[in-house]
UniProtKB/TrEMBL annotation:
Cofactor field: Zn(2+)
Single Gene Ontology MF annotation: metal ion binding
Keyword Transcription: no
Membrane disposition: Multi-pass membrane protein
UniProt keyword Methyltransferase, yes or no: no
Native species: Hazenella coriacea
Predominant place of localization: membrane
Protein name: Stage IV sporulation protein FB
Domain named Peptidase M50: residues: 33-106
Cellular localization per UniProt: Membrane
Keywords, comma-separated and alphabetical: Hydrolase, Membrane, Metal-binding, Metalloprotease, Protease, Transmembrane, Transmembrane helix, Zinc
Organism superkingdom: Bacteria
Amino acid sequence: MNRRMWKEVKFQIHPLFWLLVCSAIWTGYFLEVLTLMVLVVIHELGHMSAAWSYGWRIHSMQLLPFGGVAKMEEWGTVSAQEEMIVALAGPFQHMWMIIISYLFYFTGFWSKGWTDYFILCNFLIAGFNLLPIYPLDGGRVIQALLSYLMPYRLCIMITLWLGIICSTLLVIGSFILALDGVLLHLLFLSLFLVYSNVIALKQKNIQYIRFLLRRRERGISHSAKIQTLCVNERDPLWSVVKRWYKEHYHVLKVVDQKGRVIGFIPEEQILEQYFDSARPNCKIKELIS
């Protein structure tokens, strides 16, 4: 990572983060909270390093009261393999930090109590981020894996509904797991995740259009599997585009009302017609020359 990359990224601190710092100082847990925040920053830097290696555009990294968020432009528009590597690069950072903590302990730099706390924090941050909830790392990995198996729009829907269900269970768990009262930190995190998934569900079409635009601009790898979609000549264009696979190259096999094949259409022609003609309701038969 060069200096120019660092200069292009905005580092932001949420105002409520300072409230957390003040409360940590007041209650005598400043060192513990500081440790958690350092681990979160290293976690996000892992994502950013992997993203930079692929040439992703990174807008900012923000410290929130409950963690950190690195905002990147390419999510949902690049290959599933890239997305999985970038998503897992964050949790991977905790592996080497746990190894280092053991080295510090065995060399006498750290006490057993502090080493146990440091390792526990690493496991908690990595484990929580690997939950199957979008936009956590686990949710992004699941979305990437599902994109190999089903149309990408359906993949988005399943991922977000899974995120809503799992984060709602976390909200309930924040009350059940507490011996007395409620686990406020888990409650706020869970509510934020419910909100994030609900908003993402409302904006699912935007995410899908971004994917299609990127596909039209850059295409797909020549090694991608060819997916032949059998469509009726009277099918509207938009209904066909909704069946796109993220990791496949598409060829439409067009049949008439009697089931006879009347032509084939490559995906480039479909995407060109979809975006340039502004006629998403036109019939597929109109595209056959």
